[in-house]
Design goal:
heterodimer, A: alpha+beta, Penicillin-binding protein 2a (Domain 2), B: three-stranded antiparallel β-sheet, two-stranded antiparallel sheet, 17 helices, 3% strand, globular
Chain lengths: 658, 429
């Protein structure tokens, strides 16, 4: 009994010891819980508060209105020609996570892709790469009738929603396709590059032309609504986080009337035309053919159309004014003439006899032909009649080095610096270049070819127009530009008025200019550009017909050139210069000159040459008192070109000065 | 009657009901799911059962422990076969207006029968063979519940068994051996699952060994045969040094055999869940998501919380399972560190009172019963709050008294009834 009770006591004692141990373990465990609670709520509290905010806040963008684009005749408070504007539209959207299963979602997408002709795979890619609770745009710019139909069949189209959106409208379709450009959905590459500048993946971005160059000004700044959402993205409350700031309106230097004349005149052709004012660099018209309708390619589901246009052999996306190089042909004779006169290798009275061909003596004689027998001609008549034999000999007399130097001085191997992206520079050969590429020295035959603009020379239409500008403006060249004024979106107040910017000055003697201009005038009155002679405004010009060796299967393996200006001998301030190129046209006189004829007639009709008062009023030289200094994109910065390279080319940093 | 304990329990239940109200409130539709009303009904029912259990003598529970055990076990089996599947788990018996979860009552039934068994075998419990019956009694419900399958509920039976054996007087070296076997059994499948999951390629011969289930089987079987031979030899010749062979041999071979069993018995997602507990970043979208959201809810509560109905994580639905698994996170978000410590202190007090009851019980059965109930509460609180704050795996155990769920609340209230009963009778012989 005693043993029993002592055993009982021992067992009882053992039990108590173990229960104490148990209590200690429990106390440690509770302490651990409280310590971790302290850690989460006090030490890491701020961090978790931020994460809770991220969870519940969802910022909904309020898109900013993109700025409108007007032509040069814009007048405040009047009915103006609007080149580009916006229109209200609907986007069809969905939230993928609202569907019960992927299969259901794909079925709806399948149905919609058949009804609305959208690319299903593209949207599935987008859905799978993003947050399933985020809104996905299925199709942009859906017709109202379609929205009504979908809205009235919610059973058939579950979870399909729509939102207001604005669509860019190019009111004249193809007419300004290359000058103004177009917008499109931001690409992955663009987004990566521009993310730091505030671009968002759902935004539109200018893809070419003015739209691209001035995108930072046109786009404005999106605002956003701060929404408190639950885990299913349902809204609990919202407030305006930031109001949107509309983009600026742009007034272009382009004249709708001139652009339309060229557009109509070049119907069905392939080529480029540029009209500009040498005294300021204002571009009055800029047109490239073939073209495309920007309205058809701006929305999200047009990848197929864009691809088709990109692969088109006619290359409609190519802006032939600034992105295409051609042999300058006979228009280059003007450069040869300037080079010879300036270096005093010849005087305008210098005559050569033209028997219709020229024999270059050498190891083996080489014969260069002319298209006609011109007899004895001086420089003026050689320009007027485009006598090649004259220039063969003048070229040999002057020498290639001097011709190359003048071609370079006129900037034919440089970009003009126009404020639309994608420009290419022309090409002027050199002795070193030829030796490097062909392993041969420069032959006299090369000089002969070069003197009439054939051979290795290649220039852009805008480059030739710049050259004519230099002649008109006594050797001073201003940077060509398309934007005249930047105005506010709401009340069209002028923020910045663009001013001319000198890019180069070539010292030319008045004698040289007079001689060359006289030849160009003679070309109009009784030479190759004779068709322009009857116009009320005195026009001076030069035709050219470039032989291209590479493509023989085309009907006409020739490019037709016309460069010129008006009025001949008038003050440079009223002058307008042009360069026209027709690919595979008949000779310059036959295909390019009629276009020039219509341009100059219209310019005259609109009073470009006569109304001095009007010119003054339109002149951007006028100081804008209310205009403020604004950050205007220089071509280098916006187009992504190397600004340093531009600086090297022009000496001055690019940018439009007030 | 211990009014302090009753008040503590009622405060805990009241907090729970408030939190279920808040979790059921939709700030967008301005509607409430009404779940809290059901919980109030369960609480009233639980209160009646609690008071009812203070009237009868708890020693009667000991007399009928086997009956209780068998009845609940039958219910459990019926549930596992005919139960209404909820999220692929047959854990509930549906009675139309309400449903019960027999596995909750199984916890209590197991504690009662283990208390009774350990009382009867009090003097011999330090022998290894006396551990066989409690282990069988525990593993029968575990295997049934694993077939429901309800991993979280099944796993809680093991700490209940081990703790009861410990306070019941089992040899500590035996318990340590069992824990070692369990550890080996768990570590091997975890390594295999982890390597398979992350697609590890580099390898060495030890890992290659673990990869081959048949190889483990052969090696552990050979080891087992050697162990048995050593044990037999020891049995007949009484050579003491042989203990150094057969004890580690038995631990290793049994552990490896159990690991093969676990590797094949447990579903991949269950094994991954434990891995995700160890490293939530492994699965930020899946079960790791729950832990991360719970930590955000608790952490963003700060010192004093965001206020009742103002917690963004719980009100806007970012916090999952907010009425059951993560109800503590709702409390800590709404009432901050203050609320969290108040709730933990309440549980601290309830558990302290249970341990005190175990000390003061007039007989061994009462003491063991009270310590078993302590263990139920302690592990539920530890695992549930531990999982909410991110230091325990996501097992889906409810927080007693607070989480929504009639069966757990009833079981907890009955347990408190038993504790009150034992305390009330500590001087009655």
């Amino acid at each position: 009994m005693l043993m029993q009770s002592s055993l009982r006591a021992k067992l009882q004692e053992a039990f108590r010891v173990r229960m104490y141990f148990y209590m200690a373990v429990a106390a440690v465990a509770f302490a651990a819980l409280i310590l971790q609670l302290l850690n989460l709520q006090v030490i890491q509290g701020k961090e978790y508060q931020a994460r809770a905010r991220i969870n519940m806040e969802s910022n909904i963008p309020i898109p900013a209105a993109r700025g409108d684009v007007y032509d040069r005749n814009f007048k405040e408070g009047e009915k103006n020609v609007v080149l580009v504007s916006n229109r209200a539209s609907f986007n069809l959207t969905t939230i993928p996570a609202k569907f019960k299963s992927k299969k259901k979602l794909y079925e709806i997408l399948d149905l919609l892709s058949r009804l609305l002709k959208i690319d299903k795979d593209e949207i599935i890619d987008e859905i799978n790469s993003g947050n399933p609770w985020e809104r996905v745009v299925l199709k942009e710019d859906v017709e109202f009738d379609t929205i009504v139909k979908i809205a009235s069949h919610p059973k058939k189209f579950p979870n399909i929603d729509w939102e207001d959106a604005s669509v860019r409208v190019y009111n004249f379709s193809e007419m300004f396709a290359h000058a103004v450009g177009y917008v499109g959905s931001i690409s992955h590459a663009e987004y990566r590059r521009l993310k730091s500048e505030g671009y968002k993946h759902y935004q539109k971005i200018g893809k070419s032309g003015i739209e691209k160059q001035y995108d930072p000004l046109l786009r404005g700044r999106d605002g956003y609504v701060r929404r408190i959402v639950d885990v299913r993205q349902r809204t609990e409350g919202e407030e305006i986080g930031q109001r949107p700031v509309a983009g600026n309106n742009l007034v272009l230097t382009i004249d709708y009337n001139i652009q339309k004349i060229i557009y109509d005149a070049m119907k069905g052709m392939k080529g480029a035309a540029i009209v500009l004012k040498p005294s300021t660099g204002e571009v009055i018209a800029l047109l490239s053919k073939p073209d495309f309708d920007p309205n058809l390619i701006i929305s999200k589901n047009n990848a197929a159309i864009i691809k088709k246009l990109q692969n088109d052999k006619q290359r409609p996306f190519l802006d032939r004014v600034i992105q295409s190089k051609y042999p300058p042909a006979s228009t280059f004779k003007l450069v040869t003439a300037v080079a010879a006169l300036e270096t005093e290798k010849a005087t305008p009275d210098k005559t050569y006899y033209c028997p219709g061909k020229f024999v270059l003596k050498g190891y083996r004689d080489h014969v260069f032909y002319d298209y006609d027998v011109h007899g004895t001609v001086d420089l003026h008549w050689a320009i007027a009649k485009s006598c090649s034999v004259y220039f063969y000999q003048l070229g040999l007399l002057t020498g290639p080095t001097i011709m190359m130097r003048y071609a370079e001085d006129f900037g034919l191997n440089q970009k003009s610096g126009i404020d639309i992206p994608g420009e290419v520079a022309g090409f002027v050969p050199s002795r070193q270049w030829k030796y490097k590429v062909f392993g041969q020295p420069w032959f006299d035959g090369d000089t002969v070819n070069m003197s009439i603009g054939q051979g290795f020379l290649h220039v852009t239409p805008i480059g030739m127009c710049e050259f004519v500008s230099a002649l008109v403006n006594n050797g001073i060249v201003y940077r060509p530009h398309l934007v005249k004024e930047i105005r506010t979106n709401d009340n069209n107040r002028v923020i910045t008025a663009m001013h001319r910017e000198k890019v180069r000055e070539i010292p030319l003697s008045p004698l040289t200019l007079q001689a060359v201009k006289k030849g160009m005038r003679l070309s109009v009155t009784s030479g190759t550009s004779g068709r322009l002679g009857y116009l009320k405004v005195p026009v001076a010009g030069k035709t050219g017909t470039a032989q291209t060796r590479s493509i023989r299967q085309e009907k006409y393996s020739q490019h037709a050139w016309f460069v010129g200006y008006a009025p001949y001998d008038g003050p440079p301030e009223t002058a307008v210069a042009t360069a026209i190129l027709i690919e595979y046209g008949i000779a310059g006189a036959a295909s390019a000159v009629p276009i020039a004829e219509r341009i100059f007639a219209k310019l005259h009709e609109l009073g470009y040459f006569t109304a001095a008062s009007r010119q003054k009023q339109d002149s951007p030289l006028r100081k804008q008192p209310e205009a403020k200094q604004a950050a205007v994109p220089a071509p280098g910065q916006v187009a992504g070109r190397d600004a340093a390279a531009v600086k090297k080319t022009y000496g001055n940093p690019p940018g439009i000065k007030l | 009657m211990d009014y302090l304990l009753v008040i503590a329990v009622m405060v805990a239940v009241a907090i729970g009901i408030l939190m279920i109200y808040s979790a059921g409130f939709d700030p967008i539709d301005k509607m409430n799911s009404g779940l809290y009303r059901k919980q109030i009904l369960w609480f009233i029912f639980g209160l009646i059962l609690m008071i009812g259990l203070t009237i009868i003598n708890y020693q009667a529970l000991g007399e009928f422990s086997l009956h209780i055990y068998i009845v609940v076990l039958v219910l459990l089996i019926i549930t596992t076969i005919f139960g209404t599947p909820v999220r692929n788990t047959r854990a509930w018996l549906n009675f139309g207006v309400f449903s019960i979860q027999p596995s909750e009552f199984m916890k209590l039934a197991l504690v009662i029968i283990l208390a009774k068994y350990l009382e009867i075998r009090e003097r011999d419990i330090n022998r290894l063979r006396e551990l066989i019956v409690p282990t069988i009694l525990t593993f029968i419900p575990i295997i049934i519940i694993l077939n429901q399958p309800d991993f979280g509920t099944a796993i809680i039976f093991i700490p209940i068994l081990l703790t009861m054996l410990f306070v019941g007087g089992a040899d500590v070296s035996h318990l340590v051996s069992i824990i070692l076997i369990a550890a080996i059994a768990m570590v091997v499948p975890m390594i295999l699952t982890y390597r398979e999951w992350i697609g590890a390629e580099s390898s060495n011969f030890i890992l290659d060994f673990f990869k081959d289930v048949n190889l483990i089987l052969i090696v552990s079987s050979v080891l087992l045969v050697i162990t048995i031979a050593a044990f037999m030899f020891h049995f007949f010749s009484v050579k003491k040094f042989l203990r150094k062979i057969y004890i580690p041999g038995a631990i290793l071979s049994l552990g490896l055999l159990a690991s093969v069993l676990i590797q094949n018995l447990f579903k991949v997602y269950q094994k991954r869940r434990i891995l995700v507990f160890l490293n939530p970043d492994l699965d930020p979208q899946g079960s790791g998501y729950n832990i991360i959201q719970s930590k955000i809810a608790i952490g963003s509560g700060g010192f004093f919380g965001k206020g009742f109905l103002k917690g963004s994580q719980s009100q806007l639905g970012f916090l999952p399972e907010k009425t059951s698994d993560f109800i503590f996170s709702v409390v800590a978000e709404a009432w901050g560190l203050f609320g969290g410590i108040v709730l933990i202190s309440l549980f601290g007090f309830i558990i302290f009172r249970c341990i005190q009851t175990a000390f003061e019980a007039k007989d061994k059965f009462g003491a063991l019963l009270a310590s078993g109930i302590t263990t139920i509460f302690f592990f539920h609180v530890l695992v549930n709050i531990g999982m909410a704050v991110g230091i325990m795996p996501v097992t889906g155990l409810p927080l007693c008294f607070v989480s929504y769920g009639g069966s757990n609340l009833l079981m907890s209230m009955i347990s408190i009834g038993i504790i009150l009963n034992i305390r009330a009778r500590k001087f009655v012989y």
